[in-house]
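Revision sheet: structure tokens.
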Amino acid sequence: TIQTIIRPQGDTPRPPYPSHPIETMFKRRTSNNVTGQQQHQHHVQQQQQQQQQQYQPSSNTTTVTTGQPQPSGWNKNRRDVCKALLLLTTFFLLGHQPLGATATSAASIFCMKEGTLWSTKNLKWMMLSGISFGTSLISIILQRGYEGVDEERAYGVSFFMWFMSKSLQTFWGVILGMFLFSAFTSPQAAASAAATSSTSTTTNYPRATATVY
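Predicted:
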């Protein structure tokens, strides 16, 4: 005999619902897109960190600042020192002492070198210092040549060297003296001197006070 066992309808197990192939493909694409976005974000974060590390200065390196602002009146002081040195150069040239003129003109060049290069006034005095140095050096060379040439054998050459040496010194000494005279007697120089004297005379010093107990 065949016994049929009838189970209740609520107790019967249901087979798993089969997933559709389109739904499975959509899920795979969605998961792939999510993982791709995460990888892209991670790659961008790594690049930003590398750029920050490159631009961040290390603790072992030292930064050197070369563009420090110069104090007020720095260029004027340089020019005043250069004028004094060129005044000595003028005296040496007119006194036919080219060696001393070479030394003072070279000192004036080094003095103006420490000032602002792209300044019109500084360039003017730098050019005057350079011309003075070149004139003095050429005068020394001509004087040494005159002393080394025999006058009996080459009188014309020795006289030419002597004449050119003395003429260069006198000619440039007079021109340089005119430049310095114009600089020292100009209204700007008088106004700056008056301003400096007024500033020094109007300086207020603290007064000492006595306390009576």
